[in-house]
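User: Could you check the structure of this?
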Amino acid sequence: MEAAAPLRPDNVIANKIASILSVSYTDHSMRQALESLDSRMKQGNTTSARRHLRSNTEAEIIKANGQFLKSFSQITEQIREIGTTVESLNAQYAQMHRAITQSTRSSGRLAKEAAELKDKQDQVASKKALLDAFDTTFVVSESEIEVLTSTAVPVDDKFFQSLARVKDIYTNCEALLASESTSEGGVELMTSMSQNLDSAYSKLSFSVQHEFKTLLVGKYLQLGPKLRRSLAVLAERPSILESTLSVLVDTRQKALSLEFMNALTSETANSKPIDFYAYDALRYVGDMMAWIHSAAVNEKENLDALFQTDSMSAGLAEGMASEPWWKDQEQHHNLEDARSTVGSLVDRITSILVKPLQVRIDQVLSTETAPTTIYQVSNVLSFYRATFQKHSYLGPESGLISALERFHHACTRQFRRCLEDRLSSFRDSAKFEPPPYLQPPDFLVDAMAELNKVLTSYETSIAYNDSDESTSTIRQIIEDMTEPYLEFCNRAASDMPDGMEMEIFQINCLDQVKMSLLLFSSLTDYKVQQLDSRIDELVEVLVARQFRSFLKSSNLQNWDQRHDLSDEQVVQQLAAQLDEWLPAATMESNLALQRLTSPRLGSTITLRASQQFATTFAEFRQHLSTVYDDTKLATIFPRTESQVRVLLALE
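Assistant: Sure, the predicted structure tokens are below.
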């Protein structure tokens, strides 16, 4: 085996080149080496540079290491100084730790004392808060008490605020009564607050009374929100409110009475005084009642402005709850709600007008003698009484309404008294003689005219309704104003010598009353039917009388007893007399009945009498046909039933 040949320089270089070429260009270390080599070969890739590359590189490394050592020595010196500083700080820390430990030991007692003081401070703050709450809830300041009780301080918003506070305190005192430890103090506090409230309500009542006296000017109230607020507060004490309102009532009564008297007696530029029309009773009473109604409406509107508020209603409800015993008193007025309060006040105020009104109503009733006028006055009083009740101006027990009720009854009594006096004057007068033409007498015509006025007034009055009481009343009036006069006419007719004239006169009187009542058929149907029945009875009498007159004039009266019908001469005489009477029979009957005021009745009486006569004639003719044959009968008594009916206008 041959020995390996020694390496030649070319092989070394080739190996290096191969080694270099075998390295990947992506090798990071190779790239850094190449970049470093490139930076060193910037002056040129010369042979000298390549030869001294290693030495130059090592020299640079040595130089860099020297600079590092020099810099590190400075750092070492600084670290040494820091160590010295740290040792000094450790010594100071140890010294401070020892001082703090000693201070902590000495301040422990102070901290304990501070904690105790803190607890005491919290307790004091709690007591102070409790005291402040008590002052706020249960203590009234002197200034507030002065506002509530001193008459020198006016009633304003501060007064109402203080009053509300005292009321709240009084209510809150109930909480103190719940505990035995505070019950005694609660009682004392409630007593004190009760006294303050009484003084405040008294002061407020006095202020309102004074305002009532000064603010009432003329016939209108000058109302303000403070007055309404004051009344709403006083409503919480009904007893005090009633005494306060008594001043209002007294003041308004005086003003209203004066105004009423001025209206009655004083003349203005636009109108005469009401008393000027005293000669006209109806207008006089109507004007007075219209004035009173207007005054009542004005009072109600003014009082509504005072009391018809939510605060007033709430105050009255609270007052009824706080003083329930007040309603049980015998002498008290209705203050349960705003509406009843207003009604009670209007009643009390207007009651002052009752006395002057009664004087004048009595004067009217004592001087007026016309029943119709008195009845119309009564209807006026009834109208205003119903108006007051309907519109709730006054209650059912109102003094004014009760007075109007009394006046109405007085008018009713006077109305009947006037009717009786008038009838008495007729009875006491000289004997009445019917008119020559048998017409209804003047007193009956006048009485029916008055009845028409009464019924007209009734139909237009508020009493006109379908109630049994109203119907009974007006029917009694109709009876009182018709029957006595008809009875007087009947007595006068009974003295007449001629029966037919008596019956005609009675029918005329009844017909006069009937014609007057027919104008008010809805009220007088029952009476008209009664009169028709009585007229029919008299008509029957006249029909019978006319029938007898027909028989007598025709000589057929009792023909079966008076005449011998077998005698032809007698029959011929009857035929002649019948022929003489028949043509004028109807005319004579109508002439006899012409004094009837109703032509229809006269025609009816004649017609019915003629029908009865025709029936009797038919019987007479039938009897003759049994005595004579038809030929003979036609010769001696030619009149037939048909001819008689034609002549009597029955066909």
